[in-house]
Write a structure and sequence with these properties.
The complex is a heterodimer.
Chain A: H1 32-44, H2 49-52, H3 54-73, H4 85-95, H5 106-137, H6 139-152, H7 161-168, H8 172-196, H9 200-208, H10 213-250, H11 256-265, H12 269-297
Helix pairs in contact in A: 4-12, 5-6, 5-8, 5-10, 5-11, 7-8, 8-10, 9-10, 10-11, 10-12, 11-12
Chain B: H1 2-31, E1 37-43, H2 50-57, H3 60-63, E2 66-72, H4 76-84, E3 90-94, H5 95-105, E4 108-115, E5 120-124, H6 147-150, E6 154-157, H7 162-173, E7 182-185, H8 188-196, E8 202-206, H9 209-215, E9 219-223, E10 232-237, H10 239-244, H11 246-265, H12 267-280, H13 287-295, H14 302-309, H15 318-332, H16 338-346, H17 353-357
Parallel strand pairs in B: 1-2, 1-3, 6-7, 6-8
Antiparallel strand pairs in B: 3-10, 4-10, 5-8, 5-9
Helix pairs in contact in B: 2-11, 4-5, 11-12, 12-13
Classes of the chains: A mainly alpha, B alpha/beta.
């Protein structure tokens, strides 16, 4: 198979697809003891935030809640437009057991949405990550897939809803497909960019020691791309949760997106906010788990 | 050379200045008239917008010293969100958003735009087994289907709406409940697309989507009217407009009622205007559908409206009974609380004060 060494002059990282690595995600940090050394030096110059500055996070959350409480309490924003924190808390507690006003408890809505989100997300990642890695390493695959991918990439997932109904009906597959589309793109782009950032020296060393192109891909390219792959996984996860409301607009009788929609129909900002916060907290928790997994699988990456 | 260039640019600046001054002058002369009253009016792509559209098209508003700030909303929820932000003062919407506007934002129901009981309806495909039985329950002779043919079916509907109300009334008339069928929430346009793609067994629609469904060959199995419930469309005034400026609201309602009078007197001409209104908002209906907008949706003149709002010997008015039935349905569904229903029915939100001022 004809390959295009990622280090070749015409294959600069991120140049063929629009998203370049984020600042702080330098390729050097991806692999090798040298990279790890750089990371350590970088960390050495940074305050140990997790140990001593936790109170800053607490302060920001408390400040936000107080600000929220004050603007509703002093009617800077009407209660008809924004529910107060205590009203949201009351609704949250009541939704744990009550089906009103949207027809399902918060737990039932959560399970429905989680199932939907994970179906779309996992299937997107299973396809997107290998595709991005292969596109980034094998030039022929890149040339075949890239034009199609570039055409599909800018289409907003919700624009697919009418076609999703025609192709997949109104059940879980259609909704999961909408989420799949939104999660698929970041997985591909970041995996692609990640593997293109592989250190040319490492590739040369691998080849010097007689590794085949496939072995170099698996043993050098893929591990080197892992930090960017995880960035893609996190971005995909965010996209999946962000698209949930749109996907559940398609059809449904429960789910967090449906609950938010019903909150809108019934002019209940408290229900809307409970749905939003549940999505936000679940997304954050899943993001945290991904970060833990990343630290385990790619310990050289700077946290 | 330099002085020639300066003269050239001076002329250009002078010309632009003259155009601006002249333009401003024209504007002033065309819009200057004395003390024009501006009223923010909200509507949807629905026949109940026609009286306002008619007033604007025929220039009744200007003749009355009025300027209508017309606002268009795709459906009730965004219309109510705009109401909460004081974006409009009067408007027309469905009974459900009207009720919620009263409960949440203190708005008043000041008139009935039309009776849309027959155009909140349920449709099936022409080969549906549901069509094999009609009038199984003798109390509802025009209703298709039976408990056996409807049980277990999937119904595409817009939940928490007047359409949902018609669906539950239909199920009740057939001796069924919500638990006997599968209800799938969809917005109207998506429900149509899904039903056309072969999804679901029954689709709930309202006008003008139901005319489009009829055009596709679908058959009406039921409606609010056929299942014994009344679904009114309501005319709303915001709390602020109603309480602080009732004269202005009355002045607009007079125009609106003039439009209703014209719709009753000249349905043919009015249908042409309705067609123009729908086209402006991207909807195309054929002549039959346009005619049905007038034949299937009774409208009421001022005298009839006053009769509908009148309380006889302290008993609730006809409009209060309709809205109370709807509110009961919402309480049963858990969409509003009994206390909210109480607030709605006892808070004088269904109010004929403005009608009496006409």
């Amino acid at each position: 198979m004809t390959t295009r060494p990622p280090s070749s002059p015409d294959s600069g990282a991120g140049e063929r697809l629009a998203i370049a690595p984020a600042p702080g995600e330098q390729p050097q940090a991806a692999t090798s003891a040298g990279a790890a050394g750089k990371s350590k030096r970088a960390i050495a110059g940074r305050p140990q935030a997790s140990g001593s500055l936790w109170w800053l996070s607490l302060l920001s959350v408390t400040g936000f809640l107080l600000f929220w409480y004050a603007i509703v309490r002093f009617e800077i924003i009407s209660q008809a437009l924004l529910a107060s924190p205590e009203q949201v808390l009351t609704t949250f507690i009541s939704k744990l057991t009550s089906r009103a006003p949207d027809g399902a408890t918060l737990g039932a809505n959560f399970i429905t949405s989680l199932k939907l989100c994970l179906t779309g997300y996992i299937s997107a990642v299973c396809v997107g990550v290998p595709l991005g890695l292969i596109m980034g390493w094998f030039r022929k695959v890149d040339e075949i897939v890239k034009p199609l991918f570039e055409m599909i990439r800018p289409i907003p997932p919700i624009a697919w809803i009418p076609l999703a109904i025609l192709w997949l009906g109104i059940g879980l597959p259609a909704k999961a497909y909408i989420i799949w589309l939104s999660a698929f793109v970041p997985s591909v782009i970041n995996s692609y960019a990640g593997i293109k950032l592989t250190e040319p020296v490492l590739i040369s060393v691998s080849r010097t020691f007689g590794a085949t192109n496939w072995e170099t891909f698996l043993k050098v390219g893929v591990p080197s791309a892992l930090p960017m792959v995880f960035t893609g996984l996190r971005l995909s996860l965010s996209s999946a949760w962000m698209t949930l409301v749109a996907a559940e607009l398609l059809a449904g009788s429960e789910g967090l997106g449906y609950m938010i929609q019903m909150g809108r129909t019934l002019a209940r900002p408290d229900v809307i906010i409970v749905g939003m916060l549940t999505i936000g907290c679940t997304g954050a928790a899943m993001g945290y788990l991904l970060e833990k997994l990343e630290r385990k699988l790619a310990p050289w990456r700077r946290s | 050379m330099r002085s020639r260039r300066t003269a050239f640019w001076s002329l250009i600046i002078l010309f632009i200045g003259m155009v601006l001054v002249a333009g401003n002058g024209c504007n002033q002369s065309s819009t200057a008239p004395a003390k024009e009253v501006v009223i923010a009016v909200s509507h949807q792509p629905c026949v109940h917008a026609l009286p306002t559209y008619m007033a604007m098209t025929k220039g009744w508003d200007k003749a009355d010293g009025f300027k209508i700030d017309y606002q268009f909303y795709a459906s009730g929820p965004p219309q109510n969100e705009a109401l909460a932000s004081n974006k409009w003062e009067v408007g027309a919407e469905g009974a459900v958003p009207g009720m919620l506007a009263a409960i949440r934002y203190g708005a008043y129901i000041i008139a009935i735009s039309n009776d849309e009981s027959e155009t909140n309806d349920l449709w099936v495909r022409p080969n549906s087994p549901i069509l094999k039985a009609k009038g199984v329950n003798p109390k509802y002779p025009d209703l298709y289907g039976s408990a056996e043919t409807v049980k277990g079916k999937t119904i595409l509907l817009t939940t928490a709406s007047t359409g949902h109300y018609a669906v539950i009334a239909t199920l009740k008339a057939l001796g069924l409940s919500e638990q006997d069928v599968k209800l799938v929430h969809m917005e109207q346009s998506q429900a149509m697309a899904a039903f056309e793609a072969g999804q679901g067994d029954i689709v709930q629609l309202w006008a003008p989507f139901d005319y489009i469904g009829e055009g596709k060959g679908w058959k009406k199995m039921s409606s609010g009217k056929r299942a014994g419930v009344v679904v009114p469309g309501v005319v709303i005034a915001s709390k602020k407009a109603f309480e602080e400026n009732p004269e202005k609201v009355a002045k607009w309602l007079k125009l609106y009622m003039r439009g209703i009078g014209e719709m009753k007197a000249n349905p043919g001409e009015s249908a042409k205007l309705l067609n123009a209104y729908y086209k402006e908002h991207g909807l195309t209906l054929d002549d039959k559908a346009l005619a049905q907008e007038f034949s299937l949706r009774p409208i009421f003149d001022t005298k009839e409206q006053l009769a509908l709002f009148a309380k006889k010997d302290g008993a609730p008015s006809q409009v209060e009974k309709w809205m109370s039935d709807l509110a009961d349905f919402f309480v049963q569904q858990g969409r509003i609380t009994p206390a909210e229903k109480e607030k709605f029915m006892k808070g004088n939100f269904i109010n004929d004060k403005i009608l009496k001022m006409l």
